[in-house]
Amino acid sequence: MRRRGSGTLKDVSPTAPAEAPVRRVAAFFDLDKTIIAKSSALAFSRPFFDEGLLNRRAVLKSSYAQFLMMLTAADQNQMERMRDHLTQMCEGWNVEQVRSIVRETLHDVVNPLVFAEASELIAGHHARGHDVVVVSASGEEMVGPIAEMLGADYSVGSVMAVDDGKYAGEVQFYCYGENKVTAMEKLAAEHGYDLEQCFAYSDSVTDVPMLAAVGHPTAVNPDRGLRKEAADRGWPVLSFSNPVPLRDRIPTPSRNSVLATAGLGVLAAGASVATYFALQRKRP
């Protein structure tokens, strides 16, 4: 048996113990209400309206949906209805236009919503040599840029079917529930993660499969169902509440990131009212 070293071939004893493969560790983060204070998909309602993708009715409906999500824990049926609503709303949109809007408005829209505690946790995992992965039911067009802004190593989001450069009104991969576990297992196989040594963070009872798939699960801002589940399983619970400038929290953001100052996250009810009056001012 031989191995290559320093430009020469050296004999290696067949009885020498084989080196154990290095198992890497990842921290998997849900996005909405775990890293940021509201739905990432609905957060872009206003820029989509400004670019003509949404009408007033759709924006107000989205703001109202966000208000309901803030007041109540979204169960599986609510999430399915939200998925169907967003899928139908996006049908026919130009994919590149959506990506462009997200890139141009990302820091103004998302930066003020990022929890300081979440960005500190991300930095802590990186300091320990862990990969950080964002796993979200929101569309990959939003999840990817947000994850890059946060300094995450990888991301997985829902994938919409595309026909001739436009959304076809169907979901190709819904990154939700058990599908999140499928995505995590695929990443683990690709990058050598030992899920028993990995971490996961989420706020929703619908992410119990994601949390149960790793050795170190944590409930963050848990809804009622997840709080009960965490108590029954002995999972730790964290509370995140303070948005702050990302540049003060994440030491090595993407080199393309230009991070604006973050303010206090706006309550969804206030967002609904603000959106309504802003739209009224745009009327001729």
TrEMBL record:
Segment forming the signal sequence: none
Pfam families from the UniProt entry: HAD
Top-rank lineage group of the source organism: Bacteria
Keywords of this entry: Hydrolase, Magnesium, Membrane, Metal-binding, Transmembrane, Transmembrane helix
Recorded GO MF terms: hydrolase activity; metal ion binding
TM stretches of this protein: 258-279
CDD domains per the UniProt record, alphabetical: HAD_PGPPase
InterPro entries registered for this protein in UniProt: HAD-like_SerB, HAD-like_sf, HAD_hydro_SerB1, HAD_sf
PANTHER family found in the cross-reference section: PHOSPHATASE RV3661-RELATED, PHOSPHOSERINE PHOSPHATASE
Alphabetical list of NCBIfam families matching this protein: HAD-SF-IB (TIGR01488), HAD-SF-IB-hyp1 (TIGR01490)
Family stated for the protein in its record: Belongs to the HAD-like hydrolase superfamily. SerB family.
Name of the protein: HAD-superfamily subfamily IB hydrolase
